[in-house]
Amino acid sequence: MWSTFYMQEDDGRPGGGPGGGASGLTGAMGMRGGMSKRRAAATPGTGTSQQGQVKALFFVAFVGMAIAALGMSTEFWVELAPSKTYYNNESCLVAHYGLWKRCVRTLWTTDIDPERESCGPASLPGGDGEPNCTYFKFFNSGDNAVIFKKTTQKSLNMAAAGLALFSLFMMVTAVVCIIMALSKGEKFFLKPASFCFAFSGILVLLSLIVFHQSVLALLASDHTVPLHHELSWSASCIGIAGAILIVAGFLFMLLTLSYSPWERCLPHHHSVT
To answer: Which residues lie within the region annotated Disordered (predicted)?
Structure first.
């Protein structure tokens, strides 16, 4: 009786017999496999679906960077023009400039809209062909520029250019982070990328604001020649690019969250579906 009870008890244990040993080995392997799966699930990374989202957002950010580069490299940030009748002849002068250089061109008065009081716009065909463009000297020699007897404020112009260059550096840093996130499959790199994109957009908009203040300072430096000023298409590109980069940075930040904001805001809707 005691021997029978001992054999039954021994056979019931996981490692008591051949059958128990096989089942114990299978259970141990299953536990190890489950732990490895949970460890892999706990490890942060970018899946295939999330990589598609990252690529889509990176395309949006790339569009913003391209528009920002276009605006920074062109000289149509602002147009300055006196009255059409200021020179009392058949032509008038219009000037336009950006961060790096200024251009002055002559326009025929007959080509200008009769309802327009000032000379321009600068996109009209000029009376003397190509515009006369010169780079600003306050970047190398520190000299201010004179436009229609008005003097630029080099501190404001250099501040606007410095903000623009720093925003380009932040864009390049964000691109490097996105490339690392896609190549390494690590979700961590999305956080600095989101910050760099958003911060570069803010810097771009600040550059536009400081530039506009430099234009106002230029106009207030001398009142001999009354000028009409208006921001041109390069400034519009800067404004659009700044908004796109800020939105792209915010969306990249949403991808770094460990949960879906929509599921957190609408839990009942997702539980029903």
So the answer is: 9-28
Higher model confidence: residue 166 or residue 49? 166
CA distances (Å), origin 122, targets 10, 150, 152, 211: 98, 19, 20, 19
Q: What range does the domain containing 233 cover? A: 48-259
Which residue shows structure tokens 């040993």?
A: 21
Task: Answer positive or negative: Cα dihedral of 261, 262, 268, 271.
Answer: negative
Answer yes or no: are the C-beta atoms of 99 and 71 closer than 8 Å: no
CATH number (domain holding residue 75) = 1.20.140.150
Q: How far is CA 204 from CA 101, 165, 210, 222, 243, in A?
A: 18, 9, 10, 29, 9
The domain tally of the chain equals: 1
Q: Give, in order, the Cα–Cα distances in Å from 61 to each of 192, 201, 261.
A: 14, 10, 21
Q: What is the pLDDT of residues 162-188, one digit of tens each?
A: 999 999 999 999 999 999 988 887 778
> What pLDDT, in 10s, does the model give residues 125-160?
766 667 788 999 888 888 888 898 899 988 999 999
